[in-house]
Amino acid sequence: MSEFWLISAPGDKENLQALERMNTVTSKSNLSYNTKFAIPDFKVGTLDSLVGLSDELGKLDAFAESLIKRMAQSVVEVMEDAAKGKAQENLLANGVDLTSFVTHFEWDMAKYPAKQPLPSLVDTLAKQLAQIETDLKARTAAYSALKATLDSLNQKAQANLFTRTLSDIVSKDDFVLDSEYLVTLLVIVPTQNYVQWQKTYESLSDMVVPRSTKLICEDKEGGLFTVTLFRKVIDDFKARAKENKFMVREFYYDEKEITREREEMARLLTAKKQQYGPLLRWLKVNFSEAFIAWVHLKALRVFVESVLRYGLPVNFQAVLLQPHKKSSTKRLREVLNSVFRHLDEVAAASMLDAAVDIPGLQLNNQDYYPYVYFRIDLSLLD
């Protein structure tokens, strides 16, 4: 599973023995893989100061998770369809896969000095994540606008013969141009009426140039034919053609406009290629930074909640559990509740009143357990 449970219990002898019992039971029953999760000893002021910090950390945790999910989705959207299956390969943290990073987590003392006051560390993480989000919006907006324009042009090129762009189909040689008397029309003929068209187009109106029709392109419903006739019979020809289920496509061949459309498509394709590489590299680098910051936030939340729950002096042990399979999570929860029931009999019995407001704990009823608990879900592309 790509889900982890980050828990903590007091660090006294009784509870360390409880952790050992937990490890024994979960190992024998093949419920989870457990490892110690090292968290530094941070500077703690008063417990009251941690209550507000707990609120802030909860909001920042949710923001960080949302941000990395958006970044993961951006990687999928930026990569070509054929490469989407490889998107996960680009979602790394410090050059390793996310599971390895979480299970071997070490606090980055250089980037987030543990000697700094907790509010300062939280502020550093908040500013870092906010800047990444700002840059993400700017970079992806430019690329998305470019991609949307290209997608629109491609859709027009793949539409049916009534609406699709014709700049990539027709050529100057398909038309009689600059003639005072003659004009070339484009006619859409259903596939089943090809023979009828060939037999009757010359007689649909007076002054149709014999043998002037040519098939330009086809789709699954029909074909686009040219026909040349005198300008003064255009309206009569259109009316007679419609009676025979031949539809004249309104089109005027403008070489300058067609050249402009082709050049615009080429320019957009070039611009997309030029932006693709730098954007993907930026996403990979900053996804890593955001993910690392997120896991540090989880560590801070465990620290703060553990101090609020178990009191001062700071003394607790954090453990990372990786449930082996979805079907075992219920049994794993029962084991944890049994082992740590003594920490909070009410929570263990799942009888906590939903209306009770627990200072410093911004958790709903379903997330409150006898032990400190936070979930890390690495299913970022689901």
Automatic annotation (TrEMBL):
SUPFAM superfamilies: Vacuolar ATP synthase subunit C. The keyword ATP-binding does not apply. Keywords: Hydrogen ion transport, Ion transport, Transport. It holds the Pfam family V-ATPase_C. It comes from the Eukaryota. InterPro entries: ATPase_V1-cplx_csu (IPR004907), Vac_ATP_synth_c_sf (IPR036132). One of its GO terms (molecular function) is proton-transporting ATPase activity, rotational mechanism. Coiled coil: none annotated. GO terms for cellular component: lysosomal membrane; vacuolar proton-transporting V-type ATPase, V1 domain. Belongs to the V-ATPase C subunit family. V-ATPase is a heteromultimeric enzyme made up of two complexes: the ATP-hydrolytic V1 complex and the proton translocation V0 complex. The V1 complex consists of three catalytic AB heterodimers that form a heterohexamer, three peripheral stalks each consisting of EG heterodimers, one central rotor including subunits D and F, and the regulatory subunits C and H. The proton translocation complex V0 consists of the proton transport subunit a, a ring of proteolipid subunits c9c'', rotary subunit d, subunits e and f, and two accessory subunits. Subunit of the V1 complex of vacuolar(H+)-ATPase (V-ATPase), a multisubunit enzyme composed of a peripheral complex (V1) that hydrolyzes ATP and a membrane integral complex (V0) that translocates protons. V-ATPase is responsible for acidifying and maintaining the pH of intracellular compartments and in some cell types, is targeted to the plasma membrane, where it is responsible for acidifying the extracellular environment. Subunit C is necessary for the assembly of the catalytic sector of the enzyme and is likely to have a specific function in its catalytic activity. This is V-type proton ATPase subunit C. The lineage of its organism: Eukaryota, Metazoa, Chordata, Craniata, Vertebrata.
